[in-house]
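note to self: dont lose this again. the chain is below, predicted strucutre after it. 256 aa total, dont forget to put it in the shared folder this time
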Amino acid sequence: MPKMIFIANWKMNLGLKETVILIKQLLGGLKKIKNNLEIVICPSFTVLSEASKLLKKGNIKLGSQDVFWEEKGAYTGNISPKMLKEIGCEYVIIGHSERRQYLGETDEMAHQKIKAAIKEGLIPILCVGETFEERQEGQKDYIIIKQVTKALEGISLSRGQKIIIAYEPVWVIGSGQAVKPEEAEYTNQIIKQSLIDLYPRDIVEQNFRIIYGGSVDSSVIKSFVERSVIDGVLVGGASLKTKDFIKMINKIHPVK
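---
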């Protein structure tokens, strides 16, 4: 059974001073994390270096909110997998719906980013999910299958290389209203079947974790992680306050 994972996406919210305060508070409040729970925080690019220094003292891992697919070159404003690895990142979010919506990120771009991240030893967190319009048109399953397939098709994995797939229905992000746990479970089964169509079953079982994201908070988190095919959560706004963050962790696995 894969290790349960809690990923906090802080988005474009905290500056350096606020990030340092939150990390120090979290490290103090999460000293007794169980071995079967992994915690990752993904702050802004500008604070990654300082966050990396602080996290060396604790049991929380560092991730990035994005990456570019080239190692170096004339790509103004972008950051390569090698740069992220050098600074201490272990994870990277790829294909988040906000980047797809506001910055035109495509499945092909997600594919290139995943390939580059894996090559550098980073663990990609691929976000997939349908819009409200796609859902209303009955296209949800097709969209999920397409996003998974386009992003991963042709990417081979060795036994130690990991990928996380996060189902984030676009229409619930930031709404405060998550989908029902049984729907998330069903969708994660769709994702798993898509992976089985691409990889041998043992690779799917050992190399992939499938999680849920989208308006997750302390009131609902337990009902998601209790589902057998949901290996963790990707949390946005609810992870920005120390008490809420720790409360969610305690709902998964008590740390005190």
